[in-house]
Write a structure and sequence with these properties.
18 helices, alpha/beta, 4-stranded antiparallel sheet, 8-stranded mixed sheet, single chain, globular, Alkaline Phosphatase, subunit A
Length: 590
Protein backbone atom coordinates (compact mmCIF):
# COMPACT_ATOMS: atom_id res chain seq x y z
CA UNK A 1 0.00 0.00 0.00
CA UNK A 2 1.60 3.26 -1.19
CA UNK A 3 2.32 5.48 1.81
CA UNK A 4 0.74 3.05 4.30
CA UNK A 5 3.32 1.57 6.68
CA UNK A 6 3.16 -2.22 7.06
CA UNK A 7 3.65 -1.70 10.79
CA UNK A 8 -0.06 -0.79 10.91
CA UNK A 9 -1.15 -4.24 9.74
CA UNK A 10 -1.74 -5.62 13.28
CA UNK A 11 -3.97 -2.62 14.02
CA UNK A 12 -5.82 -3.16 10.72
CA UNK A 13 -6.56 -6.76 11.73
CA UNK A 14 -7.50 -5.87 15.29
CA UNK A 15 -9.85 -3.01 14.42
CA UNK A 16 -11.17 -5.07 11.51
CA UNK A 17 -12.45 -7.64 14.03
CA UNK A 18 -14.64 -4.94 15.63
CA UNK A 19 -16.23 -4.14 12.27
CA UNK A 20 -16.69 -7.83 11.48
CA UNK A 21 -18.40 -8.47 14.81
CA UNK A 22 -20.66 -5.48 14.20
CA UNK A 23 -21.63 -6.77 10.75
CA UNK A 24 -22.40 -10.21 12.18
CA UNK A 25 -24.56 -8.66 14.91
CA UNK A 26 -26.70 -6.79 12.38
CA UNK A 27 -26.94 -9.36 9.62
CA UNK A 28 -27.43 -12.26 12.02
CA UNK A 29 -29.95 -10.40 14.18
CA UNK A 30 -32.93 -12.70 13.35
CA UNK A 31 -30.78 -15.73 14.19
CA UNK A 32 -29.66 -14.19 17.48
CA UNK A 33 -33.18 -13.18 18.45
CA UNK A 34 -34.44 -16.72 17.79
CA UNK A 35 -31.65 -17.99 20.04
CA UNK A 36 -33.16 -16.00 22.89
CA UNK A 37 -36.61 -17.60 22.50
CA UNK A 38 -37.76 -20.58 24.59
CA UNK A 39 -36.56 -24.09 23.75
CA UNK A 40 -37.64 -26.25 20.87
CA UNK A 41 -40.29 -28.13 22.80
CA UNK A 42 -42.38 -24.94 22.48
CA UNK A 43 -41.30 -24.10 18.92
CA UNK A 44 -40.90 -27.30 16.92
CA UNK A 45 -39.77 -25.51 13.77
CA UNK A 46 -37.41 -23.16 15.57
CA UNK A 47 -34.24 -25.00 14.58
CA UNK A 48 -35.04 -24.96 10.85
CA UNK A 49 -35.96 -21.29 10.95
CA UNK A 50 -32.77 -20.54 12.85
CA UNK A 51 -30.70 -22.38 10.26
CA UNK A 52 -32.36 -20.42 7.47
CA UNK A 53 -31.64 -17.02 9.01
CA UNK A 54 -28.11 -18.07 9.97
CA UNK A 55 -27.27 -19.01 6.38
CA UNK A 56 -29.13 -16.01 4.95
CA UNK A 57 -27.17 -13.60 7.15
CA UNK A 58 -23.79 -15.10 6.30
CA UNK A 59 -24.70 -15.40 2.61
CA UNK A 60 -25.54 -11.69 2.53
CA UNK A 61 -22.29 -10.71 4.26
CA UNK A 62 -20.19 -12.84 1.94
CA UNK A 63 -22.06 -11.64 -1.15
CA UNK A 64 -21.43 -7.96 -0.38
CA UNK A 65 -17.74 -8.60 0.16
CA UNK A 66 -17.50 -10.73 -2.99
CA UNK A 67 -19.07 -7.92 -5.03
CA UNK A 68 -16.42 -5.53 -3.77
CA UNK A 69 -13.60 -7.86 -4.77
CA UNK A 70 -14.07 -6.43 -8.26
CA UNK A 71 -16.23 -3.35 -7.74
CA UNK A 72 -13.71 -1.81 -5.36
CA UNK A 73 -11.17 -1.67 -8.18
CA UNK A 74 -13.54 0.62 -10.08
CA UNK A 75 -14.84 2.78 -7.22
CA UNK A 76 -11.69 2.65 -5.04
CA UNK A 77 -13.96 2.37 -2.00
CA UNK A 78 -16.33 -0.12 -0.40
CA UNK A 79 -19.90 -0.16 -1.69
CA UNK A 80 -22.66 1.40 0.36
CA UNK A 81 -26.40 1.84 0.02
CA UNK A 82 -25.87 3.20 -3.52
CA UNK A 83 -25.19 -0.40 -4.60
CA UNK A 84 -28.95 -1.10 -4.52
CA UNK A 85 -29.63 1.84 -6.82
CA UNK A 86 -27.02 0.52 -9.23
CA UNK A 87 -28.36 -3.04 -9.20
CA UNK A 88 -31.96 -1.86 -9.61
CA UNK A 89 -30.98 0.37 -12.55
CA UNK A 90 -32.73 -1.23 -15.51
CA UNK A 91 -29.76 -0.52 -17.78
CA UNK A 92 -27.22 -2.19 -15.50
CA UNK A 93 -26.00 -5.43 -17.17
CA UNK A 94 -26.09 -7.61 -14.05
CA UNK A 95 -26.22 -10.81 -16.13
CA UNK A 96 -23.14 -9.65 -18.02
CA UNK A 97 -21.28 -9.25 -14.72
CA UNK A 98 -22.20 -12.79 -13.73
CA UNK A 99 -20.79 -14.10 -17.01
CA UNK A 100 -17.58 -12.11 -16.73
CA UNK A 101 -16.97 -13.03 -13.12
CA UNK A 102 -18.24 -16.60 -13.25
CA UNK A 103 -15.26 -17.78 -11.22
CA UNK A 104 -16.31 -15.55 -8.31
CA UNK A 105 -19.89 -16.77 -8.63
CA UNK A 106 -18.75 -20.40 -8.41
CA UNK A 107 -16.52 -19.61 -5.43
CA UNK A 108 -19.39 -17.82 -3.72
CA UNK A 109 -21.76 -20.75 -4.24
CA UNK A 110 -19.08 -23.11 -2.92
CA UNK A 111 -18.81 -20.97 0.22
CA UNK A 112 -22.56 -21.06 0.80
CA UNK A 113 -22.74 -24.82 0.19
CA UNK A 114 -19.88 -25.38 2.65
CA UNK A 115 -21.61 -23.27 5.30
CA UNK A 116 -24.80 -25.24 4.78
CA UNK A 117 -23.01 -28.56 5.23
CA UNK A 118 -21.14 -27.35 8.30
CA UNK A 119 -24.21 -26.01 10.06
CA UNK A 120 -24.72 -28.26 13.10
CA UNK A 121 -27.82 -30.45 13.11
CA UNK A 122 -29.02 -30.72 16.71
CA UNK A 123 -31.64 -32.97 18.20
CA UNK A 124 -34.18 -31.39 20.51
CA UNK A 125 -32.74 -31.23 23.98
CA UNK A 126 -34.65 -32.61 26.96
CA UNK A 127 -32.36 -30.82 29.40
CA UNK A 128 -34.23 -28.29 31.53
CA UNK A 129 -32.70 -25.18 33.00
CA UNK A 130 -33.71 -23.08 35.96
CA UNK A 131 -35.50 -19.82 35.32
CA UNK A 132 -32.61 -17.97 37.01
CA UNK A 133 -30.06 -19.48 34.61
CA UNK A 134 -32.26 -18.76 31.62
CA UNK A 135 -32.73 -15.18 32.79
CA UNK A 136 -29.00 -14.68 33.29
CA UNK A 137 -28.31 -16.10 29.84
CA UNK A 138 -30.95 -13.83 28.26
CA UNK A 139 -29.62 -10.66 29.90
CA UNK A 140 -25.95 -11.44 29.24
CA UNK A 141 -26.52 -12.37 25.62
CA UNK A 142 -28.72 -9.31 25.02
CA UNK A 143 -26.02 -6.99 26.40
CA UNK A 144 -23.33 -8.64 24.25
CA UNK A 145 -25.54 -8.40 21.19
CA UNK A 146 -26.22 -4.72 21.87
CA UNK A 147 -22.52 -3.93 22.33
CA UNK A 148 -21.59 -5.91 19.23
CA UNK A 149 -24.08 -3.99 17.10
CA UNK A 150 -22.74 -0.70 18.42
CA UNK A 151 -19.15 -1.78 17.93
CA UNK A 152 -18.29 -1.26 21.60
CA UNK A 153 -19.45 0.86 24.50
CA UNK A 154 -18.60 4.32 23.15
CA UNK A 155 -21.27 7.05 23.19
CA UNK A 156 -21.72 6.80 19.42
CA UNK A 157 -21.93 3.53 17.50
CA UNK A 158 -19.00 2.42 15.36
CA UNK A 159 -19.18 3.73 11.77
CA UNK A 160 -17.00 2.94 8.77
CA UNK A 161 -15.28 6.33 8.93
CA UNK A 162 -14.08 5.54 12.47
CA UNK A 163 -11.47 3.26 10.95
CA UNK A 164 -9.54 6.37 9.94
CA UNK A 165 -8.96 7.13 13.63
CA UNK A 166 -6.84 4.01 13.96
CA UNK A 167 -5.14 3.47 10.61
CA UNK A 168 -3.81 5.46 7.64
CA UNK A 169 -6.32 6.42 4.90
CA UNK A 170 -4.99 3.75 2.53
CA UNK A 171 -5.79 1.03 5.07
CA UNK A 172 -9.42 2.06 5.70
CA UNK A 173 -10.93 -0.16 2.98
CA UNK A 174 -9.01 -3.16 4.30
CA UNK A 175 -10.08 -2.45 7.87
CA UNK A 176 -13.80 -2.15 7.36
CA UNK A 177 -16.12 -4.52 5.48
CA UNK A 178 -18.82 -3.95 2.88
CA UNK A 179 -21.79 -4.72 5.19
CA UNK A 180 -20.56 -2.06 7.64
CA UNK A 181 -20.25 0.48 4.82
CA UNK A 182 -23.79 -0.39 3.74
CA UNK A 183 -25.14 0.22 7.25
CA UNK A 184 -23.17 3.46 7.66
CA UNK A 185 -24.23 4.93 4.32
CA UNK A 186 -27.89 4.05 4.95
CA UNK A 187 -27.95 5.69 8.38
CA UNK A 188 -26.08 8.79 7.13
CA UNK A 189 -28.37 9.64 4.23
CA UNK A 190 -29.75 12.76 5.97
CA UNK A 191 -27.01 15.07 7.32
CA UNK A 192 -27.35 17.20 10.47
CA UNK A 193 -27.62 20.98 10.39
CA UNK A 194 -24.20 22.58 10.90
CA UNK A 195 -23.37 25.68 12.91
CA UNK A 196 -19.60 26.10 12.73
CA UNK A 197 -20.06 29.85 12.24
CA UNK A 198 -22.76 32.33 11.30
CA UNK A 199 -24.48 31.62 8.00
CA UNK A 200 -23.37 35.00 6.68
CA UNK A 201 -19.72 34.24 7.38
CA UNK A 202 -19.99 30.74 5.91
CA UNK A 203 -21.56 32.07 2.72
CA UNK A 204 -18.90 34.77 2.43
CA UNK A 205 -16.08 32.23 2.73
CA UNK A 206 -17.68 29.56 0.56
CA UNK A 207 -18.53 32.16 -2.11
CA UNK A 208 -21.21 30.04 -3.79
CA UNK A 209 -23.02 32.98 -5.41
CA UNK A 210 -20.96 33.27 -8.57
CA UNK A 211 -20.79 35.94 -11.24
CA UNK A 212 -18.31 35.42 -14.08
CA UNK A 213 -16.72 37.71 -16.62
CA UNK A 214 -17.41 36.79 -20.25
CA UNK A 215 -14.37 35.09 -21.74
CA UNK A 216 -15.08 36.36 -25.25
CA UNK A 217 -15.62 39.99 -26.21
CA UNK A 218 -18.21 41.52 -28.54
CA UNK A 219 -20.93 39.16 -27.29
CA UNK A 220 -19.47 36.22 -29.23
CA UNK A 221 -21.24 32.98 -28.28
CA UNK A 222 -19.33 29.84 -29.29
CA UNK A 223 -20.79 26.38 -29.54
CA UNK A 224 -19.78 24.31 -26.51
CA UNK A 225 -19.31 20.54 -26.62
CA UNK A 226 -18.70 18.70 -23.36
CA UNK A 227 -17.26 15.19 -23.65
CA UNK A 228 -17.38 13.01 -20.52
CA UNK A 229 -15.24 9.89 -20.79
CA UNK A 230 -16.26 6.85 -18.77
CA UNK A 231 -13.71 5.71 -16.15
CA UNK A 232 -10.68 7.46 -17.69
CA UNK A 233 -8.37 8.41 -14.83
CA UNK A 234 -5.11 10.34 -14.96
CA UNK A 235 -3.26 7.04 -14.74
CA UNK A 236 -4.20 6.17 -18.33
CA UNK A 237 -3.21 9.48 -19.93
CA UNK A 238 0.30 9.88 -21.27
CA UNK A 239 0.14 13.68 -21.33
CA UNK A 240 -0.49 13.66 -17.57
CA UNK A 241 2.21 11.14 -16.73
CA UNK A 242 5.20 12.24 -18.83
CA UNK A 243 5.25 8.82 -20.52
CA UNK A 244 3.32 6.83 -23.11
CA UNK A 245 0.15 5.30 -21.67
CA UNK A 246 -3.15 4.37 -23.33
CA UNK A 247 -4.49 7.61 -24.83
CA UNK A 248 -2.29 8.51 -27.85
CA UNK A 249 -4.99 10.69 -29.41
CA UNK A 250 -5.71 12.63 -26.23
CA UNK A 251 -1.97 13.04 -25.82
CA UNK A 252 -1.72 14.63 -29.27
CA UNK A 253 -4.84 16.76 -28.68
CA UNK A 254 -3.44 18.04 -25.39
CA UNK A 255 -0.60 19.79 -27.25
CA UNK A 256 -3.20 22.10 -28.79
CA UNK A 257 -5.37 22.41 -25.68
CA UNK A 258 -5.51 24.28 -22.41
CA UNK A 259 -4.70 21.51 -19.94
CA UNK A 260 -5.32 21.41 -16.19
CA UNK A 261 -2.89 18.81 -14.77
CA UNK A 262 -4.28 19.02 -11.23
CA UNK A 263 -7.92 18.09 -11.79
CA UNK A 264 -10.15 16.00 -9.55
CA UNK A 265 -13.50 14.26 -9.87
CA UNK A 266 -16.25 14.92 -7.36
CA UNK A 267 -16.71 11.23 -6.55
CA UNK A 268 -15.93 7.70 -7.63
CA UNK A 269 -19.13 6.89 -9.53
CA UNK A 270 -20.82 8.23 -12.67
CA UNK A 271 -23.88 9.30 -10.70
CA UNK A 272 -21.74 11.62 -8.57
CA UNK A 273 -20.19 13.32 -11.59
CA UNK A 274 -23.34 14.61 -13.31
CA UNK A 275 -24.56 16.97 -10.50
CA UNK A 276 -20.99 18.24 -10.05
CA UNK A 277 -20.40 18.91 -13.76
CA UNK A 278 -23.81 20.28 -14.70
CA UNK A 279 -24.81 22.05 -11.48
CA UNK A 280 -21.51 22.53 -9.62
CA UNK A 281 -22.75 20.41 -6.69
CA UNK A 282 -19.98 18.32 -5.07
CA UNK A 283 -20.65 14.83 -3.76
CA UNK A 284 -20.59 15.05 0.03
CA UNK A 285 -23.41 12.65 0.94
CA UNK A 286 -23.03 8.95 1.65
CA UNK A 287 -25.20 8.32 -1.41
CA UNK A 288 -25.07 10.10 -4.80
CA UNK A 289 -27.17 13.28 -4.87
CA UNK A 290 -29.24 11.79 -7.71
CA UNK A 291 -30.44 9.02 -5.36
CA UNK A 292 -30.64 11.08 -2.19
CA UNK A 293 -33.57 12.42 -0.21
CA UNK A 294 -32.83 15.81 -1.78
CA UNK A 295 -33.06 14.75 -5.43
CA UNK A 296 -36.17 16.89 -5.98
CA UNK A 297 -34.73 20.08 -4.45
CA UNK A 298 -34.82 23.19 -6.61
CA UNK A 299 -31.50 23.62 -8.43
CA UNK A 300 -30.48 25.34 -11.63
CA UNK A 301 -27.96 23.61 -13.85
CA UNK A 302 -25.82 25.33 -16.45
CA UNK A 303 -28.28 24.24 -19.17
CA UNK A 304 -30.99 26.25 -17.38
CA UNK A 305 -28.99 29.45 -17.88
CA UNK A 306 -27.73 28.51 -21.35
CA UNK A 307 -31.27 27.77 -22.50
CA UNK A 308 -32.43 31.17 -21.28
CA UNK A 309 -29.62 32.70 -23.34
CA UNK A 310 -30.70 31.11 -26.64
CA UNK A 311 -28.43 28.07 -26.51
CA UNK A 312 -29.76 24.81 -27.93
CA UNK A 313 -29.02 22.34 -25.09
CA UNK A 314 -28.75 18.56 -25.43
CA UNK A 315 -27.27 15.52 -23.70
CA UNK A 316 -26.33 12.24 -25.39
CA UNK A 317 -25.77 8.91 -23.65
CA UNK A 318 -25.83 5.60 -25.52
CA UNK A 319 -27.21 3.60 -22.60
CA UNK A 320 -30.83 2.70 -21.91
CA UNK A 321 -33.03 5.73 -21.32
CA UNK A 322 -33.34 6.36 -17.60
CA UNK A 323 -29.93 4.88 -16.86
CA UNK A 324 -28.56 6.04 -13.49
CA UNK A 325 -31.17 8.78 -13.28
CA UNK A 326 -29.23 11.14 -15.55
CA UNK A 327 -32.29 12.19 -17.53
CA UNK A 328 -34.35 12.98 -14.43
CA UNK A 329 -31.61 15.08 -12.86
CA UNK A 330 -30.93 17.03 -16.04
CA UNK A 331 -34.60 17.78 -16.58
CA UNK A 332 -35.17 18.81 -12.97
CA UNK A 333 -32.17 21.16 -13.08
CA UNK A 334 -33.12 22.83 -16.39
CA UNK A 335 -34.56 22.32 -19.85
CA UNK A 336 -32.48 20.00 -22.01
CA UNK A 337 -33.07 17.54 -24.85
CA UNK A 338 -32.08 14.06 -23.67
CA UNK A 339 -30.98 11.42 -26.18
CA UNK A 340 -30.53 7.82 -25.05
CA UNK A 341 -30.56 4.46 -26.76
CA UNK A 342 -34.25 4.90 -27.64
CA UNK A 343 -33.36 7.77 -29.97
CA UNK A 344 -30.39 6.01 -31.55
CA UNK A 345 -31.23 4.91 -35.15
CA UNK A 346 -29.76 1.36 -35.08
CA UNK A 347 -29.57 0.16 -31.46
CA UNK A 348 -29.54 -3.57 -32.24
CA UNK A 349 -26.67 -3.60 -34.72
CA UNK A 350 -24.42 -1.33 -32.60
CA UNK A 351 -25.29 -2.68 -29.13
CA UNK A 352 -22.24 -3.74 -27.11
CA UNK A 353 -24.07 -6.58 -25.36
CA UNK A 354 -23.85 -4.91 -21.94
CA UNK A 355 -24.37 -1.19 -21.45
CA UNK A 356 -25.36 0.35 -24.75
CA UNK A 357 -23.90 1.58 -28.04
CA UNK A 358 -20.22 1.14 -28.88
CA UNK A 359 -18.28 4.40 -28.47
CA UNK A 360 -17.12 4.63 -32.07
CA UNK A 361 -20.61 4.27 -33.50
CA UNK A 362 -22.14 6.58 -30.91
CA UNK A 363 -19.58 9.35 -31.33
CA UNK A 364 -20.08 9.28 -35.09
CA UNK A 365 -23.82 9.56 -34.50
CA UNK A 366 -23.18 12.41 -32.05
CA UNK A 367 -21.16 14.22 -34.72
CA UNK A 368 -23.98 13.94 -37.23
CA UNK A 369 -26.46 15.20 -34.62
CA UNK A 370 -24.33 18.27 -33.89
CA UNK A 371 -24.42 19.18 -37.58
CA UNK A 372 -28.21 19.42 -37.33
CA UNK A 373 -28.18 21.81 -34.36
CA UNK A 374 -29.04 25.46 -34.57
CA UNK A 375 -26.09 27.54 -33.36
CA UNK A 376 -25.11 28.39 -30.75
CA UNK A 377 -25.49 24.99 -29.13
CA UNK A 378 -24.35 23.34 -25.94
CA UNK A 379 -24.22 19.58 -26.22
CA UNK A 380 -22.69 16.87 -24.07
CA UNK A 381 -21.90 13.24 -24.74
CA UNK A 382 -21.11 10.55 -22.16
CA UNK A 383 -19.12 7.55 -23.47
CA UNK A 384 -19.57 4.07 -22.02
CA UNK A 385 -17.36 1.36 -23.59
CA UNK A 386 -14.56 1.85 -21.05
CA UNK A 387 -16.93 0.64 -18.32
CA UNK A 388 -16.73 -2.82 -16.80
CA UNK A 389 -16.99 -5.46 -18.40
CA UNK A 390 -14.66 -3.67 -20.89
CA UNK A 391 -15.88 -5.31 -24.07
CA UNK A 392 -14.65 -3.88 -27.37
CA UNK A 393 -15.86 -4.76 -30.90
CA UNK A 394 -14.48 -8.02 -32.31
CA UNK A 395 -12.78 -6.25 -35.22
CA UNK A 396 -10.62 -4.29 -32.73
CA UNK A 397 -9.60 -7.12 -30.39
CA UNK A 398 -6.21 -7.54 -32.08
CA UNK A 399 -5.71 -3.85 -32.83
CA UNK A 400 -4.78 -2.61 -29.39
CA UNK A 401 -1.93 -3.91 -27.30
CA UNK A 402 -3.65 -3.37 -23.97
CA UNK A 403 -1.76 -4.30 -20.85
CA UNK A 404 -1.96 -5.79 -17.41
CA UNK A 405 -5.57 -4.75 -16.74
CA UNK A 406 -8.62 -5.51 -18.95
CA UNK A 407 -9.64 -1.85 -18.96
CA UNK A 408 -6.54 -0.80 -20.91
CA UNK A 409 -7.82 -2.09 -24.25
CA UNK A 410 -11.18 -0.45 -23.66
CA UNK A 411 -9.44 2.86 -22.93
CA UNK A 412 -7.41 2.55 -26.13
CA UNK A 413 -10.60 1.83 -28.06
CA UNK A 414 -12.38 4.86 -26.59
CA UNK A 415 -9.38 7.05 -27.35
CA UNK A 416 -9.39 5.77 -30.95
CA UNK A 417 -13.14 6.44 -31.20
CA UNK A 418 -12.52 9.98 -30.01
CA UNK A 419 -9.88 10.39 -32.73
CA UNK A 420 -12.34 9.33 -35.43
CA UNK A 421 -14.93 11.72 -33.99
CA UNK A 422 -12.57 14.70 -34.20
CA UNK A 423 -11.50 13.75 -37.71
CA UNK A 424 -15.11 13.97 -38.87
CA UNK A 425 -16.07 16.94 -36.68
CA UNK A 426 -13.14 19.00 -38.00
CA UNK A 427 -14.76 18.88 -41.46
CA UNK A 428 -18.00 20.45 -40.23
CA UNK A 429 -18.77 24.15 -40.63
CA UNK A 430 -19.50 24.58 -36.91
CA UNK A 431 -16.14 23.15 -35.78
CA UNK A 432 -14.03 26.33 -35.72
CA UNK A 433 -16.64 28.13 -33.62
CA UNK A 434 -16.78 25.35 -31.04
CA UNK A 435 -15.08 24.94 -27.66
CA UNK A 436 -14.54 21.30 -26.65
CA UNK A 437 -14.23 20.47 -22.97
CA UNK A 438 -13.01 16.94 -22.30
CA UNK A 439 -13.00 15.27 -18.89
CA UNK A 440 -13.88 11.97 -17.21
CA UNK A 441 -16.53 10.98 -14.71
CA UNK A 442 -14.07 9.27 -12.37
CA UNK A 443 -10.91 7.11 -12.39
CA UNK A 444 -10.91 3.31 -12.32
CA UNK A 445 -8.54 0.34 -11.93
CA UNK A 446 -4.84 0.87 -11.49
CA UNK A 447 -1.76 -1.21 -10.73
CA UNK A 448 -0.25 1.86 -9.06
CA UNK A 449 -1.21 2.15 -5.40
CA UNK A 450 -0.96 5.94 -5.64
CA UNK A 451 -4.36 5.93 -7.36
CA UNK A 452 -5.96 4.46 -4.24
CA UNK A 453 -4.75 7.26 -1.97
CA UNK A 454 -7.12 9.98 -0.67
CA UNK A 455 -6.28 12.27 -3.60
CA UNK A 456 -5.06 9.81 -6.24
CA UNK A 457 -8.43 8.06 -6.41
CA UNK A 458 -10.03 11.26 -7.77
CA UNK A 459 -7.47 12.40 -10.38
CA UNK A 460 -8.87 12.83 -13.88
CA UNK A 461 -8.02 14.54 -17.18
CA UNK A 462 -9.47 17.97 -17.87
CA UNK A 463 -8.65 19.93 -21.00
CA UNK A 464 -10.21 22.58 -23.23
CA UNK A 465 -9.64 22.29 -26.97
CA UNK A 466 -10.33 25.31 -29.18
CA UNK A 467 -6.93 26.32 -30.61
CA UNK A 468 -8.42 29.12 -32.74
CA UNK A 469 -10.32 30.57 -29.79
CA UNK A 470 -8.36 29.69 -26.63
CA UNK A 471 -4.57 29.68 -26.36
CA UNK A 472 -3.13 26.21 -25.68
CA UNK A 473 -1.00 25.66 -22.61
CA UNK A 474 -0.81 23.96 -19.23
CA UNK A 475 -2.20 25.59 -16.10
CA UNK A 476 -0.74 23.79 -13.11
CA UNK A 477 -1.20 26.80 -10.86
CA UNK A 478 -4.77 25.94 -9.94
CA UNK A 479 -6.41 22.87 -8.44
CA UNK A 480 -9.43 22.16 -10.62
CA UNK A 481 -12.46 19.91 -10.28
CA UNK A 482 -15.79 18.91 -11.81
CA UNK A 483 -17.51 21.77 -10.01
CA UNK A 484 -15.45 24.31 -11.98
CA UNK A 485 -16.87 23.19 -15.33
CA UNK A 486 -20.26 24.89 -14.94
CA UNK A 487 -18.81 28.34 -14.07
CA UNK A 488 -16.29 27.97 -16.92
CA UNK A 489 -19.02 27.26 -19.47
CA UNK A 490 -21.03 30.20 -18.13
CA UNK A 491 -17.98 32.39 -18.79
CA UNK A 492 -17.52 30.98 -22.31
CA UNK A 493 -21.19 31.64 -23.06
CA UNK A 494 -20.90 35.21 -21.80
CA UNK A 495 -23.64 34.85 -19.18
CA UNK A 496 -23.33 37.60 -16.57
CA UNK A 497 -26.32 36.52 -14.48
CA UNK A 498 -25.43 35.47 -10.90
CA UNK A 499 -25.76 31.75 -10.20
CA UNK A 500 -25.15 29.21 -7.44
CA UNK A 501 -22.01 27.07 -7.70
CA UNK A 502 -19.38 25.49 -5.47
CA UNK A 503 -16.77 25.81 -8.20
CA UNK A 504 -15.03 28.73 -9.89
CA UNK A 505 -14.40 29.46 -13.55
CA UNK A 506 -11.18 27.92 -14.85
CA UNK A 507 -10.50 31.25 -16.56
CA UNK A 508 -10.51 33.03 -13.21
CA UNK A 509 -7.11 33.26 -11.50
CA UNK A 510 -8.76 32.93 -8.09
CA UNK A 511 -7.57 29.87 -6.20
CA UNK A 512 -10.13 27.10 -5.95
CA UNK A 513 -10.37 24.13 -3.56
CA UNK A 514 -12.08 20.89 -4.64
CA UNK A 515 -13.96 19.12 -1.89
CA UNK A 516 -15.19 15.54 -1.72
CA UNK A 517 -15.93 12.87 0.84
CA UNK A 518 -13.98 9.70 1.48
CA UNK A 519 -15.64 7.20 3.86
CA UNK A 520 -17.40 9.93 5.82
CA UNK A 521 -14.24 12.06 5.96
CA UNK A 522 -14.62 15.41 4.23
CA UNK A 523 -11.52 16.54 2.41
CA UNK A 524 -10.37 19.71 0.70
CA UNK A 525 -7.60 19.56 -1.90
CA UNK A 526 -5.10 22.30 -2.63
CA UNK A 527 -2.47 20.40 -4.57
CA UNK A 528 -0.15 19.03 -3.22
CA UNK A 529 -1.99 19.46 0.10
CA UNK A 530 -5.02 17.52 1.27
CA UNK A 531 -6.91 18.58 4.38
CA UNK A 532 -9.08 15.85 5.91
CA UNK A 533 -11.85 16.58 8.42
CA UNK A 534 -12.87 13.62 10.58
CA UNK A 535 -16.34 13.09 12.08
CA UNK A 536 -14.87 13.51 15.59
CA UNK A 537 -14.02 17.12 14.72
CA UNK A 538 -10.29 16.63 14.19
CA UNK A 539 -8.33 17.86 11.18
CA UNK A 540 -5.26 16.35 9.57
CA UNK A 541 -3.40 17.72 6.56
CA UNK A 542 -0.87 15.85 4.48
CA UNK A 543 1.34 16.52 1.49
CA UNK A 544 1.58 14.15 -1.47
CA UNK A 545 3.19 15.37 -4.72
CA UNK A 546 2.85 13.48 -7.99
CA UNK A 547 5.54 12.18 -10.33
CA UNK A 548 7.75 11.05 -7.44
CA UNK A 549 8.40 7.26 -7.31
CA UNK A 550 7.32 5.50 -4.10
CA UNK A 551 6.32 8.78 -2.51
CA UNK A 552 5.00 8.49 1.01
CA UNK A 553 2.40 10.84 2.41
CA UNK A 554 4.06 13.52 4.53
CA UNK A 555 2.22 14.55 7.69
CA UNK A 556 5.01 16.61 9.28
CA UNK A 557 4.21 20.23 8.42
CA UNK A 558 6.35 23.32 8.60
CA UNK A 559 5.23 26.36 10.58
CA UNK A 560 4.11 28.03 7.37
CA UNK A 561 2.16 24.91 6.32
CA UNK A 562 0.49 24.71 9.72
CA UNK A 563 -0.70 28.28 9.27
CA UNK A 564 -2.04 27.34 5.85
CA UNK A 565 -3.90 24.43 7.44
CA UNK A 566 -5.68 26.79 9.84
CA UNK A 567 -7.07 28.91 7.02
CA UNK A 568 -8.10 25.83 5.03
CA UNK A 569 -9.88 24.39 8.08
CA UNK A 570 -12.13 27.44 8.29
CA UNK A 571 -12.79 27.34 4.55
CA UNK A 572 -13.71 23.66 4.59
CA UNK A 573 -16.11 24.14 7.51
CA UNK A 574 -17.73 27.04 5.68
CA UNK A 575 -18.21 24.99 2.51
CA UNK A 576 -19.64 22.08 4.49
CA UNK A 577 -22.05 24.34 6.37
CA UNK A 578 -23.31 25.96 3.17
CA UNK A 579 -23.61 22.55 1.50
CA UNK A 580 -25.51 20.64 4.19
CA UNK A 581 -27.68 23.50 5.38
CA UNK A 582 -28.40 24.37 1.76
CA UNK A 583 -29.62 20.82 1.17
CA UNK A 584 -31.79 20.82 4.26
CA UNK A 585 -33.29 24.23 3.48
CA UNK A 586 -33.52 23.73 -0.30
CA UNK A 587 -31.25 26.71 -0.97
CA UNK A 588 -28.97 25.49 -3.76
CA UNK A 589 -29.83 28.57 -5.74
CA UNK A 590 -28.74 32.19 -5.79
Amino acid sequence: MNGAPMSELPMVLLVGVLFDVQALAYFQLPFHLLSLLPSQKYFKKKENVQAFFYLLGLASIILLNFIDLEFYKIKTRRSGIELFALVSDQSNPVFSYLLNYWHLLLLYLAFIFTLYKLYPKHNPSNVSYSKKLVGTYFITFSILLFLSARGGWAIKPLRSFDAARFVSPQWVSATINSPTQLITSYSSSVPPKLNYMSDAKAEALANTTQSVNPYFKNNFKPNIVLIILESIGRDYCGFLNKENRFTPFLDSLSKHSLVFPNAYSSGTTSMESIPAIFASIPSLLEVPYINSTFQNNTIYGLHHYLGQNKYNCSFYYGAQNGSMGFDNFLRISGGIDYFGIDEYPSPKSDFDGSWGIWDQAYLQYFNSELSKKQEPFFSSVFTLTSHDPYHIPDNYKNTFKGGELPIYKAVQYTDHSLKLFFEQASKQKWFDNTVFIITADHPSHSVNEYYYTPTGKYEIPLLIYAPKLIAPGSNDKITASHTDIMPSIMSLAGIKEPFFAFGTSLFDSTQRYPINKDYGIAQLIDYPYCLRYYPDGKFKMHVQPKYVPNIRIRYQLSAEEMQKQKSLELLLQAKLQVYYNGLLNNKFKK
